[in-house]
Design a protein that fits this description.
10 helices; 325 residues; 2 domains; alpha/beta; binds iron/sulfur cluster; three-stranded antiparallel sheet; 26% helix
């Protein structure tokens, strides 16, 4: 375990159910395994073409640049490897992974993750991004990090300069509760946005922590205010020992139904399940398609009304007809 002074300062010392405390302080229930629990829920070890590399989709790869984090989250999908002792990976250690990326031109995006890559030294981050920027077919780099949440002071000017080393770098943060949008975290997010670095957020749905519509609404509104786009609300992965933190899938669907129409499109993330075994993400949501027959589709709006949408008649469109005549 590891908890930064900043993250500890957000905890309510008198509340054992404090949402910040529950994300970081170990609980005896972590020793309990429930049906569905997996050591490697996303099958990353089975989809690893080179050391420290995971490929589950043809156009992108996940580069595991370190096993260190500022705070070890109790729900972590990679609890099997984080804090394992290897620390930040040198470029020499990542060489086989980088060579795989260089020789596979179908790969267009590298997601640098870990552990938390922003816990690595700035010089190491810069060197890695310079190397990735030299690979022509890599169009974008994403950095997955909880540093703005757990150690926001890390997002300083020197780090922001290093992040600009790659011309198309996106930062993916991981705020789970509005309490995490503390003043220091807001400064960190503003620093990234002011430097022109696009920031998106992935929230994990956690039982007793953020599984209420009002909490998620406050979180997503707060993120948009800080110029962060809520990207995914993730069903918690079935990581071994996290059954007490997971919600039934139905809860996420109900929450999305409650938030639809209450939040604008830029504040409403997609609710997804990352399927066990690494078969890819599946978006899930309230049932909005009621019936479909002969070009007539009945849709259910966020108010529960049923509205019919009529398809245009089939046949050549105006452009096609004009070409024929
Ligand atoms: S920061 Fe990310 S990788 Fe590290 S423990 Fe938390 S969820 Fe896992």
């Amino acid at each position: 375990m590891s908890i930064t002074p900043h993250y500890a300062s957000l905890m309510d010392p008198d509340d054992p159910a404090c949402p910040i405390r529950r994300q970081a302080v170990p609980h005896a229930r972590e020793a309990v395994e429930v049906p569905g629990d997996l050591r490697d829920p996303l099958g990353e070890e089975l989809h690893s073409p080179a050391p420290e590399l995971v490929q589950r989709y043809p156009d992108r790869v996940l580069l595991l640049a370190t096993d260190r984090c500022a705070v070890y989250c109790r729900f972590c999908t990679r609890s099997r490897m984080v804090g394992d002792g290897g620390g930040a990976r040198s470029l020499a250690k990542l060489e086989a992974a980088l060579r795989y990326i260089e020789t596979n031109t179908a790969i267009r995006e590298v997601i640098v993750s870990g552990g938390d890559p922003l816990v690595m030294s700035t010089a190491r981050i810069r060197a890695l991004l310079e190397r990735l920027a030299r690979i022509e077919h890599i169009l974008t780099v994403r950095i997955g990090t909880r540093a703005p949440v757990t150690i926001p002071q890390r997002i300083d000017d020197e780090l922001c300069d290093a992040l600009r080393t790659h011309p198309a770098l996106w930062v993916m943060t991981h705020f789970n509760h509005p309490k995490e949008l503390a003043p220091a975290a807001r400064v960190a997010l503003a620093r990234l946005a002011d430097r022109g670095i696009p920031v998106m957020n992935q929230t994990v749905l956690l039982r007793g922590i953020n599984d209420e519509a009002a909490i998620l609404e406050a979180l997503f509104r707060g993120l948009v205010r800080e110029r962060v786009r809520p990207y995914y609300l993730l069903q918690a992965d079935p990581v071994r020992g996290t059954g007490h933190l997971r919600t039934p899938l139905q809860r996420g669907i109900e929450l999305m139904a409650a938030l639809q129409g209450r939040l604008s499109g830029i504040a409403l993330p997609k609710f997804v399940v990352d399927t066990p075994g690494g078969r890819g993400k599946v978006p899930v949501g309230p049932q909005t398609l009621v019936a479909r027959e002969g070009g007539r589709t009945t849709l259910r709006t966020f108010r529960g009304e049923e509205v019919v949408y009529i398809d245009p008649p089939l046949g050549p469109g105006p452009i096609e007809s004009a070409r024929r005549s």
